[in-house]
# Entry
Amino acid sequence: MVMKILNKVKNELPGLIDYIMFYNTGIVFQSSFSEKANVPVICANLNEVINTFRQSLVCYGVSSTDYQKIIFESTTHIIIILKLGEDSNIALFFDNTQVDEVNIRPIQKYLNKLEDLIDMDKSELEYN
# Structure
């Protein structure tokens, strides 16, 4: 079910190369990266980015540190980290040479479905 939804996301977003779904705890739920990629380290780095931004907001004096999305853009790649559920996230990796602009609105319904699935599977993982 998750793969079917992620394939729809990939079809809707031109230039999408890879994705990684992960929990705030560092557990990887799903990834499209090749075996050559060090997925646990990528996940740890993404969590570090989220926490660094969160800590920056605390230092700034903001009481709420929830985020909706974080975007990193270079000349060759775009990384968008989206909050799915309370403890779950998805990072989308784009080829910036193939994309004019990334619009996630068309895939919002798929993200909502992924949120339900990842949160359901997280609770199952905790009890097993």
